[in-house]
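Anyone opening a protein record will find just a pair of labelled lines. A complete record is shown below as an example.
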Amino acid sequence: MARSFKTLDDIGDLTGKRVLVREDLNVPMADGKVSDDTRLRAAVPTVSELSDRGAIVLVLAHFGRPKVPSPEHSTAQLTQPFSDVLGRSVRYIDWEGGAEAAALLQPGDVALLENTRFFGGEEKNDPATVDRFAALGDLYVNDAFSAAHRAHASTEGLAHKLPAFAGRQMEAELDALEKALGAPEHPVAAVVGGAKVSTKLDVLKHLVGRVDHLIIGGGMANTFLAARGVDVGKSLAEHDLVPTAEAIFDAAEKANCTIHLPYDVVVSKEFAANPPSLRTCNVHEVAADEMILDVGPAATEALGDVLKTCRTLVWNGPLGAFETPPFDAATMALARTAAALTREGSLVSVAGGGDTVAALNQAGVSGDMTFVSTAGGAFLEWMEGKELPGVAALSA
């Protein structure tokens, strides 16, 4: 695959070279401990490879949204958890005296620098902050796709100051996204779910011109059903966006994109786990006091049949209120179908976004998809067709 960016394979001898590596280590904490180390583990391939190749590895990362420097937002508390997953020692370097401390490191050493957001200039992409970061390194590696939609000093500015390369995680992400929407094998299906059309408007508008099948689920499907004249009862729907939904239908028709909406649905009078009023019905039979909470079994099976005709799938958002059983049934079933098709080699499947990752984990199929992106905002902006500053800078 021809790439517009350089990777670690394009770097020669690294012995003694100081490499600034931007990682996303913004992990959740509970009671002073890391509660989910997914992001720490994702950084291991790049950091380990650079260290093994004799580089002096200086890791840049933000942690939380600090207004001012504070111990609770210090990356110092991540050094031991990161060291544990990395299987090698990780030093902590504060910005005070950082250059002097970095100068003492030896080839193969790994150090985690203090929170990049302790500088007001990080988020403003301030040239003085970029220069301060750049003074510590010889090369720059961006391995944080999830922060690539932000033009910050450590995600974008540095790529213009030092020779810039994509880390292994970034490389895998960009390769997967290219296969999914950049130059995909058709037919292409997109599953877009979630509560509100308003949060995914740009995604839907972009996708109708790029995919052959657009499967709309979640609360946003109700708005599209309303645009088709369906009475959705008490269901979550944005009735003020019906004209927008109609415009998306028109755009899809012009682009030969088929929009798939549920024709049978799971409804209830209350939103609770396994409610007594639960029933499955045709979309035209939803009562005034009922709400649609999931796609019905017949429509789910039909959607599975659609995927069987496709070569590529991109997925963002659940089909129903998957956190509350039994309204996870459609999402689980379609996820398992997608996973089975991927396993047998007939489908390239790329999924991303927090709820989507949680749903795929719940279905037990995350490991079977071609690629699962943990990036939230960056994945969504990519699906909207927007240029991501951190990625564009690597191609400059």
The mean pLDDT is 95. The radius of gyration is 23 Å. The longest helix spans residues 168-182. DSSP finds 15 helices and 17 strands in the chain.
